[in-house]
Amino acid sequence: MTTQTRAKGGQALTAAIDAATDEFGPTMTTPQFASLAHVTDRTIHAWRSKGVGPTPWKVASRWHYSTADVVRFVHGAK
Q1: In the 8-state DSSP scheme, what is residue 54?
Q2: What is the band of 8 on the pLDDT scale with cuts at 50, 70, 90?
Q3: Can you tell me the distance from the alpha carbon of 8 to that of 20, in angstroms, rounded to the nearest whole number?
Q4: From the CB of residue 71, how many other CB atoms can be counted at a distance below 10 Å?
Q5: Which domains are present in the chain?
Q6: Do the beta carbons of residue 69 and residue 27 sit within 8 Å?
Q7: Cβ distance 55 to 36 under 8 Å?
Q8: pLDDT (tens digit per residue) in 26-61
């Protein structure tokens, strides 16, 4: 991979993070993560219980994720 290719990949990731942040805000919930990753909420729950994916935190009864971390995970998982 050339430096130029890496730079374009980095720009694409930055654009994806910006777009997701515009749509979801700086954090997202489990259903939003599932929607972005094209999986079910159950899959997100399974990943979380196995320690797969971005680190969540719980507010009241809802799990939250950093939008930027979710986008990085989804782009890295493909």
Answers
A1: S
A2: low
A3: 18
A4: 24
A5: 3-77 (1.10.1660)
A6: no
A7: no
A8: 999 999 999 999 999 999 999 999 999 999 999 999
Residue with tokens 């991979």: 1
Three-state secondary structure call for residue 62: strand
- C-alpha to C-alpha distance for 9 and 74, rounded to whole angstroms: 14
Amino acid identity of 32?
Answer: Q
Predicted TM-score (pTM) of the model is 0.80
The residue behind tokens 């990731």 is 13
Determine which helix (DSSP H) or strand (DSSP E) holds 29, and give its type and residue range.
strand 27-29
**Which residues are bridge partners to 58 per DSSP?**
63
Return the pLDDT at 48: 97
